[in-house]
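Data availability excerpt. The first of two example chains:
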Amino acid sequence: MGLSQKCQYALRALFELARRGPGMPVKIGDIAARQDIPVRFLEVILNELKQGGFAESRRGKNGGYVLARPAREITVGDIIRFVEGPLHPVEEAALFTGRNPTPDTPGVVFVRVWEEAARALASVYDRTTLKDLVDHEHHLRTGHLPDYTI
């Protein structure tokens, strides 16, 4: 099971806010253009992300959207769980959650594999922040990671 288009758009929208830096509002049209997201769909997604505490809107001539928290505090896992719900690499895996299947239950032999896959996904998603993605983009563009030493 892959991520829904809505979730991919949410990730890309928040990434775009993260790459602009703290307190630098980004207009919906700019996010849509840079991340190739339909504006009407983006409006709905950003409204939900506001309600979820991921983004804030700023009014005025220089208004737009900003991250509600620092990029280093928002993980890919946080965003995916907010948009998609619990991580299950296989939709059928969710059917076994909270149940006591017997050895005769069809598909029960795969539960251990699905649980292990969900833990592996969570590990990657939960250790990857928006800041990490911004740094990785910088590395892809320049060939080196930024040096923040003082």
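And the second chain:
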Amino acid sequence: MLKFVKIHILLFLIFLSFSYIGCSSGEYDIAEYRVDYDEKTLVIDTIGIITDIKEDITKKEELKLDVKVKETFTFTVQIGAFINKDNFERFLALAKQKVGGDVYYELQNGIYKIRIGTFNNRAEAMKYWEQARRLGYFDAFVITKKIK
């Protein structure tokens, strides 16, 4: 029995030594390689490309000059959207208590969209968006609407 235990201890020590040698086999050695290569230069007719780009730009500018319609936009913050009218009414009442009189809704395609304010620039809308997030409306986002 003693011989059997000695053999197991010897096998365990051999296994332990192999695993130690295997785990520390130059894992942190850094090999450096030098690569010699030839750099190749590609010559392109850049003058022709530039004139083509300038012609494209002038054509686009001429098209823009022909159509002088100024588009205007308004911005608003949406804090909720509901299909169920009961849920919408509860949310709207709570929003009016938290935010105040700037809260309104629009009905589009059967969806009640609850929004805050109408702004002429995006910066003002982003201020209200931050305020809405502070009030707990984490799903709020800014809507851009084109005025016809």
